[in-house]
Design a protein that fits this description.
The protein is α/β, with parallel strands linked by helices. The chain contains nine helices and twelve strands. It has a five-stranded parallel sheet with strand order 2-1-3-4-5, sandwiched between helices. A four-stranded antiparallel sheet has the order 6-7-8-9, with no helix packed on it. Helix 6 (159-170) crosses helix 8 (194-208). The chain is elongated, with a radius of gyration of 18 Å. Pfam families: Response_reg (PF00072), Trans_reg_C (PF00486). Residues 131-230 bind DNA. The modification 4-aspartylphosphate is found at residue 56.
Length: 237
């Protein structure tokens, strides 16, 4: 997808905030459609099929997450939640409901634009990864052969470590919640065992990261989950 001219749906009940967001997006060449309620948002989304949605959760008619749930029945457009709700539980709920990213108000225009660009570039990663070989610095992951090497030397990963890496790569540059990782790697019966997940992440970082204590690739989203960062723009925003 070309980022230039992408259509972005702004879902925000405060007119002043909508004006600010509209000005930022139009100045960068995006097209914009707006909604002030959850009902309007679902209608606009069905009418215009936006490339990306910026969604406030505090809407006057319904919780903003109902928009995510409704859209996910037919749309794969990235949804970035923009909310004053900064509690970890709110982030986890939004991401588990189908949102792709979460920004806490207030945020900078540069950070917002970086998240938008990254989301648009990685829409294809909702489907199986097309490039079977992924490079993480001197680490190479060959998904077709299920082989991981570092500087040409094969790294042994346990089946669970490899599956964790595969899931993170499939959702690269997006937050993957603890629940989602546990469900996909160990199954629904393990969806609350976050301490178990942390142990595996430590060993995976020891094998993949140049400096495990200061991870470059597998980033912790405190209280929420993890993000495998391929796009350097996220690091500089």
């Amino acid at each position: 997808m070309s980022e230039s001219g992408a259509l972005i749906l702004i879902v925000e009940d405060e007119a002043s905030v909508r004006r600010s967001l509209r000005a930022i997006l139009l100045d960068c060449g995006f097209r914009v459609v707006e909604a002030g309620t959850a009902a309007e948002a679902v209608q606009r989304a069905s009418e215009h099929n936006p490339d990306l949605v910026l969604l406030d959760l505090g809407l006057p008619d319904r919780d903003g997450l109902t928009v995510v749930t409704a859209m996910r029945a037919w749309s794969l457009a990235p949804v970035i939640v923009l909310s004053a709700r900064g509690q970890e539980g709110d982030k986890v709920t939004a991401l588990d409901s189908g949102a792709d990213d979460y920004l806490i108000k207030p945020f900078s225009a540069n950070e917002l634009l970086a998240r938008i660009r990254v989301a648009l570039r990685h829409v294809a990663l909702r489907t199986p990864i097309r490039d079977p070989v992924i490079d993480l610095g001197d680490v190479r992951v060959d998904l077709s052969r299920r082989v991981v090497t570092r500087s040409g030397q094969e790294i042994h990963l346990t089946p669970h470590e490899y599956k964790l890496l595969e899931v993170l790569l499939r959702h690269a540059d997006r937050v993957v919640t603890h629940r989602q990782l546990l469900n996909e790697v160990w199954g629904p019966g393990h969806s609350t065992e976050t301490r178990y997940l942390r142990v595996y992440m430590v060993t995976l970082r020891q094998k993949l990261e140049p400096v495990p204590g200061r991870p470059r690739w597998i980033i912790t989203e405190p209280g929420v989950g993890y993000r495998l960062r391929l796009d350097r723009e996220l690091a500089s925003s």
